[in-house]
């Protein structure tokens, strides 16, 4: 029986900490599927801080692109798998195109639908951390607008399939469903 | 008896789909009052996608500026009228000034108050879709800041007069009132 | 017994008006601790509008930097003190560095922790207004990203210590805790 938990929220809203807490409710060992790519020092520092917070129950798997396949490969290996985070994965996929366009959005949405299919067949519970990125003014650059639309659509799709959905604000989770 | 439903949310949060669902609860025919102006291909594509999703119960009226007057003209012609969306209407009004300033904000707020008065006298229920645009960092440009302030004030005013208010996040509606 | 109320929300979401309403529930006189610095006309106009709305029960104290110390100095002088707002205070502290960096974030977080300690020892109830700034796309500039992270962390810390926490959207408060 598939079990998916979806957690969204703003930057530094405490969504990862809340997701880790939910994951720990499933026992140990736990899989931490990191979609981040260490491209610069800023990112490295952030990844380091997150790893520090998690304990020895966690095993980190780094996969910036093939999220669905990696989940299938790890199915059964952990009590739960935390994906952190959906929006970095979408960014990685989007940036495979030299110049992102409307086609890119549809191409990445095909990967999102694959992920949905995979989640429905997983035996291991999956906790997905995403970001709320659509509550500011319209982004100035086209890439920003495409990313924002893509993230919004992916969030809708995954929250719809999830058994639980939460919005975290100022560290406090609000149950969406 | 006036009946106003107010729906806000981020970009691609599923607020239009939720608003359409609420509207369909009133029966048919339904009015779709589009405030968008097709200025470019990006916008055309988005409008096309939205029209595709709506069925034959809907009649589209395009009005980028005279929202209150159009609502009064259409009062009684439909089981409900969906306004999609408030923030595009505000943008259209704001851009009537060559260089938007604090005066522009107050000028547009006068139109918002007219809209409020109209909503209070409508026999046909009106469902208003708006956008949450104030949860990012301070916009770099003055126009962005004016727009953000204006949208925030208009959202407050319309949510206050509405019988129901909803915030949609990741496709899931949260009841505000 | 310390009593802290934390209110967050987007720009022009009605959070200050709601905070003032909560404060007035404590009686009079009330302290209004303004962290804004009048650097330009835009800001002056906004401060003026806010002061107009508040009545004679309120006494304004302006303090852009030494928030914890000022709260301690004013403890017992009012029925409640409203701090408006946290994010302007964070901005003021951040901009003490000519070029903000990761160090700046940690330096300002030390001030946030001091504020937490102070709040725990206050006899006078304190109502803190903050801003939700993390629900847009990643800011283009490094300063924007540092500010966004800082505001997110400070919001988490203060919401965690608060007795009540609220998220205001379109003028309507949602209870977080």
Q: Looking across the biggest beta sheet of chain A, what order are the strands in?
A: 3-2-4-5-1-6-7
Question: Helix fraction of chain A?
Answer: 40-55%
What structural class do helix, strand and pairing data of chain A support? alpha/beta
Query: How is the biggest beta sheet of chain A arranged?
Result: 7 strands, mixed
Radius of gyration of chain A, in Å, reads 15 Å
CATH class of chain A: Alpha Beta
Topology of chain A as a string of helices (H) and strands (E): EHEHEHEHHEHEE
- Assign the CATH topology of chain A: Rossmann fold
Based on the coordinates given, report the CATH architecture of chain A.
3-Layer(aba) Sandwich
Query: pLDDT under 50 segments of chain A (min length 5)?
Result: none
Q: Overall mean pLDDT score of chain A? A: 93
The overall number of domains of chain A is: 1
Number of helices of chain A: 6
Give the strand tally of chain A: 7
List the SSEs and their pairings.
3 copies of one chain form a homotrimer.
Chain A: E1 4-9, H1 15-24, E2 30-34, H2 41-53, E3 58-62, H3 67-74, E4 80-84, H4 86-94, H5 102-121, E5 126-129, H6 142-161, E6 164-169, E7 172-175
Parallel strand pairs in A: 1-5, 1-6, 2-3, 2-4, 4-5
Antiparallel strand pairs in A: 6-7
Helix pairs in contact in A: 3-5, 4-6, 5-6
Pathway (chains A, B, C): Cofactor biosynthesis; adenosylcobalamin biosynthesis; adenosylcobalamin from cob(II)yrinate a,c-diamide: step 5/7; Cofactor biosynthesis; adenosylcobalamin biosynthesis; adenosylcobalamin from cob(II)yrinate a,c-diamide: step 6/7
GO biological process, one term (chains A, B, C): cobalamin biosynthetic process
InterPro entries (chains A, B, C): CobU/CobP (IPR003203), P-loop_NTPase (IPR027417)
